[in-house]
Amino acid sequence: MGCTSCSSGVDGQPKGCKNNGTCGSDGCNKLTVFDWLSNMALPGDQKPFIGVEIRFKNGRKHFYKNSEKLSLSMGDVVATEAMSGHDIGIVTLTGELVKVQMKKKKQPEKVEELPKIYRKATQKDIDIWQTARAKEPEIQKRSREIAIHLGLKMKISDIEYQGDGSKTTFYYTAEERVDFRQLIRDFSSAFSTRVEMKQVGFRHEAARLGGIGSCGRELCCSTWLTDFRSVKTSAARYQQLSLNPQKLAGQCGKLKCCLNYELDTYLDALKDIPKNDIKLITEKGTAVCQKTDIFKRILWYGYEKQGMNWHQISVDKANEIIALNKKGEKVSCLEDFEEVEHVSESKIFENVVGQDSLTRFDKPKSKNNQRRKNKSKNRNQSPNQNRKSKKNA
Q1: Banded pLDDT at 291 (limits 50, 70, 90)
Q2: Rounded to two decimals, what is the model's pTM?
Q3: Domain extent at residue 43
Q4: Which of 140, 211, 231, 305 is the most buried (most CB within 10 A)?
Q5: Hey, what's the torsion of the CAs at 106, 65, 33, 160, to 10 degrees?
């Protein structure tokens, strides 16, 4: 999605609103919700819901109560209640859909328990907020230097100023417990603000920062994925993926969340397929499973002493042999159950998208050869012969 100011430029390139997370229509932001009830009027005896969803930096959203009954719409900048002072955020959702979002995110159902919205932000509030946000990149760089100087094994991934500039929240990731008491003292003296440290997981860090995955699309965690489930290496084994950490790991350094998307489909397909460690006992010898094609339902077996010779057997016939082996019976050989796939040789290659012929480099062009022969003849001839040939011409 995009807002009205994200149209294309003169050369066809997207201009972008360049608001850096403060888009007024909320169309360029992460995890947005379309208010499909905005054009519908409430029944006569029902009062409008006073809960409001407000977004802060990097898609962080909280719910507040509109106790002052302000006329709010999507994109309004408001001043909200904080632990001390006030914060500045952007309204992302109002009305009855806020109830659904609160229930989905397991927020308290009693609206009276929510913090309240003070007012619509004035120009002075917005100026202080923008000035504080402009200082965040430099302070993040300085905070990392202080953490490295103290020898702390942590990574400060992001910084967020409170709307009134009185408090700074440092988001960090660490594999072990970090004693940052001295760090907080150094931060307070260096930046002259109250400091709050928040530890986030590696997946949440990638969701906050965003990025492009190996599939070429935006990260799922930064666009629509809200719950992070544990991903195990067994998910890659069931899908017959190579256990290469560079390919299976996402930008967070953990296993990709998308490994769980098709896992149930593979588990359903593997229900009646024999396991790889089950051997087929024949009179010719014991056969071991070498390869499995889950969706074609084909297995390749090879004898223990002839591992290079594979025999293609369907799942049904493999289960038939296993059932006979459990009864103590042996089949004669795998060749009796083998299924040979016949490939038609009529069309080995077909030019469907306009490629050149595969044999275009096999035979040189005749015209070039004839020119080379004529040049070599002229070089070998004597000067007198060349003159005679020119006169005859």
Answers
A1: confident
A2: 0.66
A3: 1-121
A4: 231
A5: -90
